Amino acid sequence: MRRLALELLSLCHAMDLHNQPDLAVRPSDTIEFKAVLLVDDDKQLAQALQWILADANFLVDVANDGAEALVKVKANEYDAVVCDVMMPKLRGDEFYLQARELRPHLADRFIFITGFAADAKINLFLTQTDSKYLVKPFPIQHLINCLKQLLD
């Protein structure tokens, strides 16, 4: 073990550290991450979507109901929100209205996910707010594409 350490030390001394190539990452080589708040009371779905969106280069924060999401919107800046409509404590539509007051720039940065798009009240809300939405179950790539389009 001591012999290996001595060999490594002599190797380090032999290297010319002043003439090493510049390996710094250039700004054009960096990946820009967008912060997304994912709000869904289905914890398994939320966790799966968090991992999938992270693989697509999104920074994903999760809230499991609208009340928790509202606390997070007060404390953090997000580029977009992916939000279920039907949730306990504070529904997605109610959360949207309150979040929009706190962070007006988020008004057109919501993507709703719902299994209840045919419900008259929910459909009216989605139509009146001109919100983007996906009906559960949806192909994951549709969500990724929708987010990318929203954030471009």
Spell out the blueprint of helices and strands:
Elements: H1 2-14, E1 34-39, H2 43-55, E2 58-63, H3 66-75, E3 80-84, H4 92-102, E4 110-114, H5 120-128, E5 132-135, H6 140-151
Parallel strand pairs: 1-2, 1-3, 3-4, 4-5
Helix pairs in contact: 3-4
Structural description of this entry:
- The chain has one domain (32-151): Rossmann fold (3-Layer(aba) Sandwich), CATH 3.40.50.2300.
- Helices cover 45% and strands 17% of the residues.
- It is built from 6 helices and 5 strands; from the N terminus they run αβαβαβαβαβα.
- It has 152 residues and is an alpha/beta fold.
- It has helices at 2-14, 43-55, 66-75, 92-102, 120-128, 140-151; strands at 34-39, 58-63, 80-84, 110-114, 132-135.
- Strand 3, helix 4 and strand 4 (110-114) form a beta-alpha-beta unit.
- Helix 3 packs parallel to helix 4 (92-102).
- It has a 5-stranded parallel β-sheet with strand order 2-1-3-4-5.
